[in-house]
Amino acid sequence: MDFGIFMPSARNGYIVSEAAPQYSPSYRLMNEITDAGEENGFKFALSLVTLRGFGGPTRTWDDALESFTLMSALAPATENMRLYASVAQLTQHPAVIARMAMTIDDISGGRFGVNMVTGWQRTEFAAMGLWPGDEYYSTRYDYCREYVTIMKELWRDGVSSFKGRYFQLEDCRLGPLPEHHIEIVSAGLSDKGVEFIGEHADYSFRLGEGGLDGIAANTRKVVEAGRRNGREVGTHAAYYVFVEDTDEEARRTVERYRDAADTVAIRTMQGEAGADTAGTTAKAIVDRDGTFMSTDVIAGSPETVAAYFDRLAEIEGLDGVMLCFDDYVRGINRIGKEVAPLMKSRAAADPAGTPA
Fold it and tell me: I need a surface site. Which of 122, 237, 303, 309 has the fewest CB within 10 A?
């Protein structure tokens, strides 16, 4: 059961609540978070990409760091964690992203990967004149498939003359070639998104939707999609985690945030998502708890959280979890020092019971 960090590289992270910590992201904070992650045995960190926030009293995501720039800066500041930057595919040509990824692969010594974000927020791209029209909702994974094919050709061969519906290249060059495998990750939930993952991704990040049965079903879909394509695909489930001294204290923390939810920002986010009738991720945003951006919550004492993680570890094909926190440094330290030593699944990998 690996631990990863969903970096709060946009304003206020992933809690849309006036009671939550209010902050703009900074490199200093991101560096403190990855330092805590490395100290506590976390395996990876992923930063999001967003180009337009949701406003409201909390100004959720109105401020955001650029994902590739951030991860290139964190690469020499870390030693062990894998680092994933996110690309909004409508905003950058795949040959440019391939070169950026090759560069960070070199800086990090082979600890870098690219998170493909097809995009569902129309105003985010329309503001820059990049929205191709609402038909994109149903064709975005076709676009993504061409995009990743070009990147992989350039990383493998150093040249691509790819000809497709969306991209036409002519003797496009890349050098030097990356010295390591650059992983592709994706969080697609729709049938088309899962099929793309099965064809091209090394890892999938799933929302922890529907409790243990729900994440087991979602994981099984990804594993089966990989097998249909003769590939093995890893899976991590995304959760918001609140570790407090007692279950009751953790429950009160969650309710305090829900009671002060920024309904203006949530309505804006859900309105944008509602326009995407083809997307399962967008549907989850509309239908589920907007306070935590549709991510399931694990809340309790160290013993309770450890027991839940152990149950997750029993799910076939689930490699770990990608975690969000209200106070990231505090939360990461509690996971590493108080939760991980109690986990049977961690002790099996490390008899001392310390973070693997």
Answer: 303
Helix 191-200 to helix 136-157 angle, to the nearest 10 degrees? 0
Bridge partners (DSSP) of residue 159 are: 173
Residue 73 tokens read as: 């800066």
Bridge partner list, 10: 64
Structure-token pair, residue 341: 């030593």
Q: Does pTM surpass 0.85?
A: yes
**Which whole number is the average pLDDT over 160-172?**
98
Closest CA to 263 of 287, 281, 288, 290: 290
Q: Domains along the chain?
A: 2-349 (3.20.20.30)
Instruction: Name the token pair of 232.
Output: 């093995």
Cα–Cα distance measured from residue 236 to residue 184, given in angstroms and rounded to the nearest whole number: 13
The two tokens of residue 228 are 């249909």
At residue 355 the predicted structure's pLDDT band, cuts being 50, 70 and 90, is very low
The DSSP code sequence of 125-148 is HHTTT----TTHHHHHHHHHHHHH
**Three-state secondary structure call for residue 119:** coil
